[in-house]
Amino acid sequence: MSLTLRESLVTSALPRLEAQLLWQRVLGVPRAWLIAHDTDPLDPAQVAAYRALEARRLAGEPIAYILGYREFFGRNFQVTPAVLIPRPDTELLVECGLRAIRDVRAPRVLDLGTGSGIVAVTLALERPDAQVRATDCSAQALDVARKNAGALGAKLWFSHGNWYDTDLGSGQFDLIVSNPPYIDARDGHLGRGDLRFEPLGALTDGADGLRDLRAIVRGAPDHLAPGGILCVEHGWDQAESVRSLLLDRRFDAVSSERDLSGIERVTQGRAPA
Ligand SMILES: C[S@@+](CC[C@H](N)C(=O)[O-])C[C@H]1O[C@@H](n2cnc3c(N)ncnc32)[C@H](O)[C@@H]1O
Fold first, then answer.
1. Which residue of 152, 176, 206, 230 lies most exposed, with the fewest beta carbons within 10 A?
2. pTM flag (> 0.90)
3. Does the CB atom of residue 181 touch ligand 1 within 6 A?
4. Structural domain of residue 35, as residue ranges?
């Protein structure tokens, strides 16, 4: 006798929501379809396809890599194991960036370490008059970001290289945003959970977690227009250190913003005139 969707969901070792997402992927249908058809008999080939995805999830692979996408700022972005899985916290970085350029016409924006392109693409779509350049040291990540920009209709410029050491076009930027690797290389979390599957170079700077943030802050004044803003995402315990880095480089209006968990997650400052 054939298995039904309802029986499969009840017997799955996965949480129901994850099992439903995997079934949506296998059948190529929206969630409402699953609910309306939950007593339909399943084809054995579909059951086998589901079981293969379920086994990957049970082995710990992040659901975003299995599905191949993750939602960010209301849009679906393609993700592969070459890029960090977008985090909801990073929406705060986008919000701070958008606020920083609210009164600037045709702003020039630089996203350092773009990964899947979530920040650069979102800024470009939310501010269609902006000229947004996205960089990364990973050519594979840039391929994913290019695909996301194309699929979502964002016009971006891309550069491959080490932070500012790449083609940044001509002129200076009104806004530099970055969510760099900021986990301390000795942090035990790197060997646990979803992080085991994400690119190490997207998670840690291989040092104390502040090495890349230092490089980004140090170089920013040379690439920001007078009054331009630098916004960086950082770890839960790094806000004070990042504020000090910005103050040491003579940034004005240095402040940190809290994420939905109340953690200081993004720090920003205005470039010295
Ligand atoms: C934490 S991920 C952020 C990705 C994306 N912006 C996001 O918020 O999901 C950091 C990104 O910085 C890139 N990266 C790491 N070191 C870099 C460097 N020295 N120069 C440029 N990009 C770098 C990584 O490849 C990775 O894509």
1. 206
2. yes
3. yes
4. 5-59
